[in-house]
Amino acid sequence: MTNKRVFTSRHVVLGDGQPRPATVIADVTTGKIVDILDGVSPRSSFSEVGDADWIDAGDKYILPGLVDAHVHLNEPGRTDWEGFWTGTRAAASGGVTTLVDMPLNSIPPTTTVANLEEKRNAARGQCWTDVAFWGGVIPGNQSHLKPLVGAGVKGFKCFLIESGVDEFPCVNESDLRGAMAELKDTSTVLCFHAELENTPEKFSATEPSDPTLYSTFLASRPQQLEVDAIALITRLHKEYPSLRLHIVHLSASDALPLIRAAKASGLPLTVETCFHYLTLSAQHIPHGRPEFKCCPPIREDANREALWAALLDGTIDCVVSDHSPCVASLKKVEEGDIMSAWGGISTLGLGLSLLWTEARKRGVGIDRLVDWLCVRTARHAGLADRKGQLKVGFDADLVVWDPEAEVKVTKESLNFKNKLTPYEGLTLKGKVDKTYLRGQLIYGGAQDAFTGLGPVGDLL
Q1: Per-residue pLDDT tens over the stretch 173-183
Q2: How much is the average pLDDT of 12-21?
Q3: Distance (Å) of CA 187 to CA 138, 159, 181, 244, 433
Q4: Pairing of strands 244-247, 189-193
Q5: Which CATH number fits domain 66-380: 3.20.20.140, 3.40.50.1010, 3.40.50.10490, 1.20.1250.20?
Q6: What is the pLDDT of residues 66-118, one digit of tens each?
Q7: Is the peptide bond before 76 cis (omega within 30 degrees of 0)?
Q8: Are 179 and 190 spatial neighbours (Cβ–Cβ below 8 Å)?
Q9: What pLDDT, in 10s, does the model give residues 21-32?
Q10: Where in the chain are the domains?
């Protein structure tokens, strides 16, 4: 009995250009890729491999498993919003084989080693994908940061504006200096929710105040909040130039000149944006639809075009979901009250199709998407030695992908817990047929996609 599983296709994305014919050989015992051959191998070359272990994708693509470096799974404490079981299944259905869980919205938040262990205990045995963890920086927890690095968190997140949950308060400049001084000699990364209310300007009497209008919400979170935050971040970065800093979910194109200047000066700054900022625009959001609310907000068409340009020229490094669900009552769907609704968009399972649908319109190839969704997110999360690429010695995380299939987003097609998303009703290009984690099938693509399978994910 062989321990090999063989994957072959006329279109394999190996990370060094356009898809090409190749054969990837995995050892299912170790979960590693042991060889990659040029060309489509004939079945007769692997007579020792059983039919179940011979995966010929034909004209469909074989991609590396996606690494989603920004996900809120909310367990323990808010498992009615999302949990490890449902969230990682949803991720697997979209070709994600590794995700990194954010430190907030769970209770307790991941701000101490004890809290991290509580989260890991909740996750064990439930994860369909591999899961890593971010730690959190809040006022007064500086002494916990190095122990968290030692315990394996992939980096830290902080907020420069209220987070929306009481147990994860935002930090001020003094808090940041303390955290950066503590982390400056480590190889970790400090990530920022970059909105800062330096000069809070509320609505003038002439501005609309109808809470069901998206324009009301958009006016409440202007681009200047992100510009002010990133100005503070880049100023502090000059004092701690050895520490990598990272901007999460950038939405404001007005901040791009600051980011370009910081990068040009040699500061180790990286930036992500999200599927929703690249595929949606404020002008097309209907009245009374809180499913579209997220912080920072979705902005206008011109802003979206500027984000695409920044992604294509390398100013923005990678793309993530920021999957941030809640229960229906907090989304205020029946009332249509965008202003008081929870701010977060549910995306797990849809990201690759969303981005591919938009990329095709722009002539952007699948190799670029793999770079943004796999290679660079793995690098950002400190997993570049084993995730994000199809390479010998790496984890055998593979996706069989049909770029021509059309998929309609319905409630029934969603695998996350609370089935509310702004994408419902859209027809998207591209479909995940199968997802493999370390050579093992974790999503089967059909109506009974998870039947006979189990949660084999590791905690990284």
Answers
A1: 999 999 999 99
A2: 90
A3: 20, 21, 13, 8, 37
A4: parallel
A5: 3.20.20.140
A6: 999 999 999 999 999 999 999 999 999 999 999 999 999 999 999 999 999 99
A7: yes
A8: yes
A9: 999 999 999 999
A10: 66-380
